[in-house]
Amino acid sequence: MEPALLRTHPPPAIVRLLKTRPLHALLSDPSTSRAARQLFDAVTRPTAALCGALISSLSKLSLHRYLLGSVLSLHRRGACVPPGCVPLVIKACALSASSCQGRQAHCHALVRGLLGDVFVQTALVDFYAKNGDMNSAVRVFEEMPVKDPIPMNCLITGYSKSGDVENARRLFECMPRRTSASWNSMIACYAHCGDFQEALALFDRMLRDGAKPNAITITTVLSICAKTGDLSTGKRARALIGEDDLDNMIVHTALVEMYVKCRLLTRHGRSSIGCGSGMLWHGAQ
Do you know which PANTHER family this protein is assigned to (predicted)? Predict the structure, then answer.
């Protein structure tokens, strides 16, 4: 793209960027994305490829509200969101709690014949579940020809937030294949509802089934052990923590809290956990 095709005149330093790499490449690079967005705003008629690069860049940078504002601006300029970016728009609506725009995106996908796309369907299930509209989430899910674990996990999490443990568990048991995220969602569901015994029973079943717990699993289990004083299960969870997970501040904090709540924060306990953060230890003692 030539600077002459710009409808306004950005600062010279930004225009010089355009001479080094194509605009879509500048948009995709986090180090130049901000300046590239100023160039994009100056383009008279952005192509579908440029629109896609902009939306993908904003999604990767988690600038969800900015993304939605940019989509509205594109529509006003007569540009169209590429089909492959529609799931990213719906995702932005879900993560920014933009219920109205999410429903508009659903209608947009319907008009463009995109509701058969599995990525659009999954994004819609997640959007409705995150917004607490489980009826709409289930309707979209039931229209999916293949019941993938990802939208099923979205539904389980949605049921969990609404306190509907029964439907969450029913869906969990119907899953043909359970990922770590599936187990995490169901364990968190019981923890969220205060049924710690069932949450830990499910954790034991997860281990028996050969599923591999991750940092999210361990953090949830340690939190439950801290609340219930279940030192035995806490120690078993501690044994599953890898060296990489110990560097995770959230896991480390949950581990410290478990030992504190179980009244076992001794010098031996401290040395067995690892050095960690001095601030954490100061607050724990």
Answer: PENTATRICOPEPTIDE REPEAT-CONTAINING PROTEIN (PTHR47926)
